[in-house]
């Protein structure tokens, strides 16, 4: 990295934990949204991706290599087994696409699994994100609870949430109650969040909203 910084004009090397990088601040320093390219360590892929979601407003695109299983979940459509929390989050926050697959022989040391290069176009989804009108922490908590019991119907899986004094409704609407979470479109999770918690201004500065525990207050 030192050789790269010394020999390539315009390159700045930042030595930091990738999970602790403030991409919003980095974009301000660079004077505009970031374009991210990377080969993500498989054991922290999800944490890195959700960190990027936290800073979606400051990222133009991210073309990243990850385990194929994770890539398939991000791009999965409703009514499929791989559809889950990553599908909902990233299809709301970005246009997602698997660009190509990579065999284990493309890496050294060689992993035991296939990999994929995924495009996350955050800029293309800016209008969609601006229209969410929900606190991302509420959306994350509701989505996480729904998929925790993915074999159950939503009326049962969200029963605990209905018991919370902070929710605005006492009963799940009939059109959702008898559906399982994998049958619900990403935008419908936004609608459910609005029903439960109301429309809220999207926090301009928040950290790790998608990785907090259920009910945990996430610090700015």
Automatic annotation (TrEMBL):
Residue intervals of the Ribosomal RNA adenine methylase transferase N-terminal domain: 2-124
Signal peptide location: none
Residues the record lists as binding S-adenosyl-L-methionine: 1, 17, 39
Keywords for the protein's UniProt record, in alphabetical order: Methyltransferase, RNA-binding, rRNA processing, S-adenosyl-L-methionine, Transferase
EC identifiers of the protein: 2.1.1.-
One GO MF term: RNA binding
Enzyme class: transferase
Pfam families linked: RrnaAD
Homology family: Belongs to the class I-like SAM-binding methyltransferase superfamily. rRNA adenine N(6)-methyltransferase family.
Name of the protein this chain belongs to: rRNA adenine N(6)-methyltransferase
Species name: Polarella glacialis (Dinoflagellate)
